Structure formats: structure tokens, C-alpha cells
Amino acid sequence: MTKHLRNFCIIAHIDHGKSTLADRLLEETGTVSIREMKEQLLDDLELERQRGITIKARAVVMKFRRGKDEYELNLIDTPGHVDFQYEVSRALACCEGVLLLVDAFQGVEAQTVANAYAAMEHDLHIIPVINKIDLTHARPDEVAEEMMNSLGTDPDDCVRVSAKTGQGVGKLVDAIIEHIPEPPRDTEAVLQAMVFDSNYDDYRGAITYVRVMQGTVRKGQKIRFLRADTTHDVVELGQFTPHRTACDELSAGQVGYLICNIKSLGDVHIGDTISIPGDGAAEPLAGYSRPKRMVYCGLFPSDGQNFSDLREALERLAVNDPSFEFEPETSDALGFGFRCGFLGLLHMEIVQQRLENESDIDLVQTAPNVTYEIVNKRGETVEIHKPQDVPDPGDVEEFRQPIVRCNIIVPTDFIGAVMKLCQERRGIQKSQEYLAAQRAMLTYDIPLAEVVYDLHDKIKSCTRGYGTLDYEIIGYEAADLARLDFLVNGKRVDALSIVCNRADADRRGRAVAKKLKSEIDRHMFEVAVQAAIGSRVIARETVPAMRKNVTAKCYGGDITRKRKLLQKQKEGKKRMKAIGNVEISQKAFMAVLSED
Ligand code: GTP
User: Fold this and answer.
1) Closest alpha carbon to 372 in 396, 348, 352
2) Cβ contacts of residue 578 below 8 Å, gap of 6+?
3) To 5 degrees, how large is the angle CA 202–CA 203–CA 209?
4) pLDDT band at 399, cuts 50/70/90?
5) pLDDT of residue 55
6) Which PROSITE patterns match (predicted)?
7) Does residue 131's CB lie within 6 angstroms of at least one atom of ligand 1?
8) pLDDT in tens, 253-272
9) What confidence category does residue 591 fall into, taking pLDDT thresholds of 50, 70 and 90?
10) Residue spans per domain, the chain
11) CATH code of domain 371-478
12) What distance in Å separates the CA atoms of residue 568 and residue 81, rounded to the nearest whole number?
């Protein structure tokens, strides 16, 4: 009897039906029976279900027989969002083929294109799949043509399926067996395995997902993580069927998991290579890199009291998500909190949402900023994670910001609106292609800072929801940037500093100063609110001094009203933060931050 292996991923835009198709494949191959099938086995995290986004890659093995042949199909589940591009690339490096899944009604979207290019770079066999052919508005012929125009796939190769009804899924299994190449099976060579994912189990510690490239890994043996340079015993190994099922060994070509008594996910690096201890180890696999945090923001508990709760919650999160990082930060305005780093915007939203779901903490978030690079007058390059750390203008030789290449797919009617938007965001157009008569792909290079804030929402709203955006970081470029500070009676309010283009500084400075003025209560003296770059003030507002006693209007009136008023004032005081001699409520900062 011969055993055949196939390793593949499904790549698809959000909601094109990846999880549903995965479920149908498990059913079709008899891996789980229909009765066993809970809705969407692969998306087990509650939050993923809520957001409908597969955040972490998982792997499932499908084993079945056909006549004399035994098959083992490994489906590696990939995250579908740009922030997790590196994880996607590692998952692709473990496959020989991909199913490129496109919705028969929606057609090709930005994410599909980006991921298809990544699969081509890895030289994988691509099986184009058109899903949702059961929909009455399905237009599979047009979508096949769009796929040909944008991705170069042959319309005759497209497998048409409905992941909902199961139609065509049998044919898809045939296509996987027929077209995706068998992985190399050198089981006797020195062990070399790729770590493509990990997750954390409260009882077993880190669970490391691997694809064995060559050799064999056995239960009880010692292994070494080459990049991390740590040695461990393999306590358990196995595959997901889709439940964790232990076995004695995994050999070249197979995909599975290892448990090695590793207590923290921080010790398992995605993209690392596993081999044997000592000099005889295999070469580390190419393509390894560390997760790079591109977006930072401050998180503060909103009433300053549950700081330690917040710390605990962040620690719990970090155990499960090594790409998220945090460090304590103190702000005059917001008190004690944390500076947090994320892979990107969506990653930031996910972490915040988890924090709010899993712990009962009310959060204040400062405006997100990207990672900048500054070359100072001494010629050193420093990475900047928060605006307050930008040196004064006199010490900045060059200010650099990350640039991303954006692919935007839109119906042709909206090209004008999207181009205008991208130009406003300092985008430089790289190309414009037609995928079909009614759909075009625009490519722009745009500063990440301009994308981070709300470009995606803006594109959605100016295309009535039809436009899709995807981006990848292409590098850093010098720009005319400055740190814009806000001062209250001459004292800088750290939480409000931002980095912006010098050309925008006047407008933004005026807007925030105005807003701040409206949020600051009158004091016994005049309060000056200023926006400044270095020592140069570019905008000023004044909160006039208080003229009347607040309780004056109560004299002669009802004493209980007066008491209430005083009580209210006292409560308000509790949440006041002092900036110099000026008291400002935390609410005021929040209003200003949300405005920005
Ligand atoms: P993410 O996990 O968010 O990336 O989404 P996904 O690509 O995994 O999509 P999912 O499988 O969650 O499907 C999205 C929606 O499309 C769900 O409401 C499915 O029920 C529906 N759907 C999936 N396949 C089909 C299909 O073949 N026909 C129809 N009519 N609906 C489908």
C-alpha cells in the first residue's frame, strides 16, 4: 500500500467561504461525520467567530483510503488579513499547493490578489476555486475571467463548488490529489522542520505547529530550535484530526504538532527551524524574520484605579500572542498605563476587543501612531514608538516614515473618488489595471500613517462598500515630518503629542487647540492652550478666567440644590488631572483623542 501526502492552504478574501469549505472537505474525506460537524470547526476562538476572521493558522489532517492507496491531506489554515502576512508566508512555505478561493458573486478582491502573488512567489501549485455557485446572483463565468485577468489562472482549471451545499467538493478533492505535488519524502536525512504557528494551552504549555521538511521527529527525542537556540525534549507529538491525536513520529512531508514543556509562546518563534542538538544539525530554513510592530498606542485604565488589573489582562494576552508587546508608560494626563505595539491596525483592534471581552476594564486609548525612524545629528538611526520620544527639531537630521503599497480593487464607477482620496493621503499612483469591464485595481504607495487612521473606512464609504484594500510595507522614506505638541499654560501635555506632516501642522494644531479649549473648565485665571512645533507656537486659544461663583445662583434658593451641586463638583474633581496649575478632566483628554 502506498501512502500519499498533500499539503495545502486555502487562501481567500474574508467571507468568501474559507471556513465553510474547510468543513466540507473534512466531511467529504470522512474525517468528521456530518453529525459530528459543529459549525465551523476551524474557527474555534469565540472572537474569531464574532469578527468572522481566522486569526491564527491551524492545521488539520484528512486521512482516507481509495482502493490500494492511502491519502493524508494536510490543510493548513491561514490568517486572512494583511497584518498577519508573515504568518501567511510561513504557512505557504509548508505547502506544495493552494486553493485560491473566490466568491462567485463578489469576484476577485484585494486580499485574494495579495495572497495569490505570495503563493506564486513560493512556487506553489494553484487550484482556482469558485465558491457559492448556489447563489442566484452567482456569475462564475465572469469571475473565472476576472481571475484570469488578475491572477493569470486558466478558466478551464477553475473548480466550481458550493461550500454550503457540498456541490463540486468531491471534484475538488480529486483535483487536490491529481494536481498538488507530493512533498519530498527524505525520511532518513537529518531532521529539519519548520515552525509555522504556535498556540498556548493552559495545561500543556506551548503547542508548536510544524511541517517536517526532511528526516523524522520522534516522541522522547531531543530537538533544538535553531534560531532561538534552545533544546527541548519532545513530550508529545501528533496531528489534528481535527482533535489533537498523539502519535509516535512525524516524518518528512508531514504536518503536525509538538509539545515540549515550553512555558511561554515568547520562546517559540514562527519561522524557526527545528533540528537535532549538536554539530550535525540541518541548515536553518530561509525566510525567518522577527515580528515587527508597526503600530503603537497607549492604553490606560479610565479611572486610574485598576492599573494592576490591566497589567494582568495584558500579560494574559501576551502569553497567547507573542507578536503583541507592551511596556509601562506614565502620562501626566492619563496616569499610569502601557505603551502597546501591534503588527498593524487590525491586530490592534483585536487585542483591544479581547481586553474588553475578557476583562472588565474600561480603556482609554491614545491616537495610534506608526513606527518612525529618525537620523539624529550624530548620524545615529533611532526607532521611535511614541511621539513624545521624537527629539526637538534641532536634533533631527532626517525623519523617515514607513510606506506601504496598497492594492485597491473597485468598481470602475468609483475610480475617481478613490484616486482623489489616495491623493489627499499623499499617495503616489503606481498602476491601474482593469480586471473586468466593471472592475479595476489601483496600486498606490501611501505613508502607513495615512492608512492607519481610517483609509479603509473611507474607501468603503466612498465606494458604497464595494472597494477592498490590501497593503504591504515596502520600506521607509524620508518626509517633512514634525512633532506637534500641545501646551496648557506653557506645559506640554504628553498624551496629545502627534507626529504629522509639516504642511498639515497648522490645520491640525488649530483644530485640536480649539477642541481642547472647549473641554477645559474655566479656572480663576486665564488658561492658554497652544499648539507648537519645538519652541514655535503655531496656534493659540484662551480659556477666559472664571467670573462667577458656581453656587452663586443658588443663594437664597434651595439648600439641597446647592449641596447637590457641590457634591457633583467633588465627584468631578476625583477624575481631574493637573497639568501645571490647570485641572483637566480625563474626559476632556478622551474627547480630544477621539476627535483626532
Ligand atoms: P473568514 O473566516 O472571515 O475569513 O471567512 P471565511 O472566508 O472563512 O468565510 P465563511 O466560511 O465564514 O463564510 C462566510 C459566509 O458565506 C458564511 O455566512 C457562509 O455561510 C457563507 N457561505 C460560505 N460558502 C457558501 C456557499 O457555497 N454558498 C452560500 N450561499 N453561502 C456560503
Assistant:
1) 396
2) 584
3) 80
4) very high
5) 37
6) G_TR_2 (PS51722)
7) yes
8) 999 999 998 887 878 888 99
9) low
10) 1-177, 190-273, 293-366, 371-478, 481-591
11) 3.30.70.240
12) 47
